[in-house]
Structure formats: C-alpha cells, structure tokens
C-alpha cells in the first residue's frame, strides 16, 4: 500500500513565484523546503547535505536561517490560504509572501547527519501581514528559534 503524498504549499505556488533558492520547486539547485500543516501548527523537515557544513559535524547557520525564512513565508501562505477557505491540494492558487523581517537565535550547534524539523505558529497581525514564530529541532533538541514577519507579495510587479 502506498501513501498519498502530502501537498506542501510550495507545490502550488504560481510558476513565476516558484524559483526561491530555499523553497522554490523550480530551482534545481535549491533546498526545496516543503511547508504543510500538522494540526494547527506548520511543519517542514529538511536534512542538510555535507556541503552545508559550518565546521565538521555541524550545520552552517545560513542554512538554518534559510529554513526559518522559507518556513515563515510558507506558513503565512498556508494561514491566509486557509483563512480564504482553501487547503493545499484544493486546486486554488495560494497567496505568495515575502519576508519583511527575519530574526534568528542560534541556541546550540546544530548537528549534521540528522533531519531538522521546523515548527511554526502563525499570528495574523494585519490582513496582509503575518508573524510566524518558529522552532528548529535536531533529534528533538531545539537548536534555533526565529521570527518571520511576512507580507503578501503583489500579484504582479511594477503596478
């Protein structure tokens, strides 16, 4: 018996908004972070590669910041999509967010060779602005926390 794949919000971004190095499905060189619901929180898993080394045995902090950043904008997209009456997989194009503010606290060195888990809690602070608080864990230990303020990206540029 095969499992039905879970649709992440990034799977449904419009093509012109799906090239992000962190979460863009159309960026062949990117990380391909995938954000989805887990209960009332958001969830992303990622296993950094050996090229993401800070010092031997530990993950480079920029990868962790990128995970927090993209998880935050993906979480905001999930929240507004749900508020609009939709879920990933419904066939409706979700809103796309960009980062207005990113804050990261590194609490302990993050080990390599394990899956990182980012869990987010979303707070609406304006109809087009969301704040997402995120914890990143490795083997159950919190390694970093972050806050992303994300704003809805205009549907087209230059207007």
Properties at a glance:
single chain, 159 residues, 1 helix, 6 strands, 14% helix, globular
Helical segment tally?
Answer: 1
Question: Could you tell me the strand content as a percent range?
Answer: 25-35%
What order do the helices and strands follow? EEHEEEE
Radius of gyration: 15 Å
Give a short account of the largest sheet.
6 strands, antiparallel
Structural class: alpha+beta
- The tally of beta strands, per DSSP, is 6
pLDDT under 50 segments (min length 5)? none
**Amino- and carboxy-terminal Cα gap:** 49 Å
- What topology, given as strand order, has the largest sheet? 1-2-4-5-6-3
Percent range for helical residues? Answer: 10-25%
Identify the quaternary structure here.
Answer: single chain
Could you characterize the architecture of this molecule?
The protein is of the alpha+beta class. The chain contains one helix and six strands, in the order ββαββββ. A hairpin with a 2-residue loop joins strand 4 (116-126) and strand 5 (129-138). The mean pLDDT is 93.
